[in-house]
Amino acid sequence: MANAKFEEVAKQLIERIEDGTYSSAQRLPSEYDLAEEFDVSRLTVRKAIDTLIASKILVKDPGKGTYVMSTSVPNKIESGRMGLQSFTESARAYGKTSQTEVLKFEPLDNPDEEIQKKLKLEKSIHPEVDELVRRRFWDNEPMTIEDIVIPHKYVKGYKKEDFNQSLFEILSKSVEISYSQQEIEVILVDKKMAELLGVEVGQPLMCVKSVTYTADARPIFYDKSYYRADKYTFRTTLTRLEH
């Protein structure tokens, strides 16, 4: 009987996805709410959801919820569809496995004027910042190169090999990440970047410059990332101001 119940719940969830009640990339109601609505136990709902996750119909983002697998851009990753996420969190949301190769982690002696301005560094003193460069993979395919500059106080005590994991998870132990401001431009890939990303020289890349902040607008890190244009698209929401 338990099997029949969770299969029936799974069937109804599929019907809601097909009729548009739950759209692509939409978060589902909580297990508690679904259990109450379907008049079943949370365990039954969990079994139904796990079945649909295994079938690539749903995807779970730990700590955030369960989502309908994105179908809007089948051949590309849609960055921003679930708000501000780390690379690792985005991979999980698409049912992928992320890998990281740390190319560099060392003090940055002379950050340029743009970095000093973005991170609000004091010009009168020698800023203590570190540079972290990583190559990121999804299912062993190179996707992006990250060049991150971060105040030393946030990564004090960490070594190069420690950054094989999510930077957001490391930082969340000492600071609360709230939002990010981004600038996006298209560039043509040079020979070095082409070799790192496994693409042809001259292909387009998306260069994304971003600053990530705390809720009280303190900059946490500056990031210049290079994304494969054949693999990524970016979603933004624009709100009209009163005139």
From TrEMBL:
Keywords annotated in UniProt: DNA-binding, Transcription, Transcription regulation
GO BP term, pick one: negative regulation of DNA-templated transcription
Coiled coil spans: none
Annotated SMART domains: HTH_GNTR, UTRA
Source organism, top-level taxon: Bacteria
CDD domains from the UniProt entry: WHTH_GntR
Pfam families hit by this protein: GntR, UTRA
Listed GO MF terms: DNA binding; DNA-binding transcription factor activity
InterPro entries attached to this UniProt entry: Bact_HTH_transcr_reg, Chorismate_lyase_/UTRA_dom_sf, Tscrpt_reg_HTH_GntR, UTRA, WH-like_DNA-bd_sf, WH_DNA-bd_sf
Residue ranges occupied by any HTH gntR-type domain in the UniProt entry: 3-71
Residues passing through the membrane, by range: none
SUPFAM superfamilies listed in its UniProt record: Chorismate lyase-like (SSF64288), Winged helix' DNA-binding domain (SSF46785)
Name of the molecule in the record: Transcriptional regulator
Organism: Pediococcus stilesii
